[in-house]
């Protein structure tokens, strides 16, 4: 494994863990509260369940390296939605009342990278779908 592959594995695991914890947090904090927040932004409340499920299951999938490209694309969509519907008005660093979009932008960049990257050597995708038999 070279340094780029090691970095990719590290990035994938950290991104997966971050989204997994955010998904858990949405359910533990009361998904109805998150649905109410979505409604206040003009987003249908049921989307809170969809987002929380994608974060939870997608986070686990990224940790083990399963469906990395698809999950990363879903995370890109979630981050773009978060930035443009909730965070953009607060600015990059926030305004004291609401967090800015700097973390969302970093998570977006990580997701875009993983959506474009080759399969990692240490991933379930590589073990299941490697046609070269490595």
From TrEMBL:
Main location as per UniProt: membrane
Pfam family of the protein (one): DoxX
InterPro entries: DoxX, DoxX-like_oxidoreductase
Segments crossing the lipid bilayer: 9-25, 45-66, 73-93, 105-124
Membrane topology note: Multi-pass membrane protein
Tagged with keyword Repeat: no
Keywords for the protein's UniProt record, in alphabetical order: Cell membrane, Membrane, Transmembrane, Transmembrane helix
Domain of life of the source: Bacteria
Subcellular location: Cell membrane
Keyword Nucleus carried by entry: no
Family: Belongs to the DoxX family.
Entry protein name: DoxX family protein
Organism: Peribacillus butanolivorans
């Amino acid at each position: 494994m070279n340094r780029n592959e090691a970095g990719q594995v590290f990035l994938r695991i950290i991104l997966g863990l971050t989204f997994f914890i955010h998904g858990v947090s949405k359910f533990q904090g009361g998904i109805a509260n998150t649905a109410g927040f979505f409604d206040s932004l003009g987003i249908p409340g049921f989307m809170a369940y969809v987002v929380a499920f994608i974060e939870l299951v997608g986070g686990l999938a990224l940790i083990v390296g399963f469906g990395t490209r698809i999950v990363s694309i879903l995370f890109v969509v979630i981050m773009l939605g978060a930035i443009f519907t909730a965070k953009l008005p607060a600015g990059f660093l926030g305004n004291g009342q609401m967090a800015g979009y700097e973390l969302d932008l970093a998570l977006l960049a990580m997701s875009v990278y993983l959506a474009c990257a080759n399969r990692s050597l240490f991933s379930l995708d590589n073990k299941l779908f490697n046609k070269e038999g490595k």
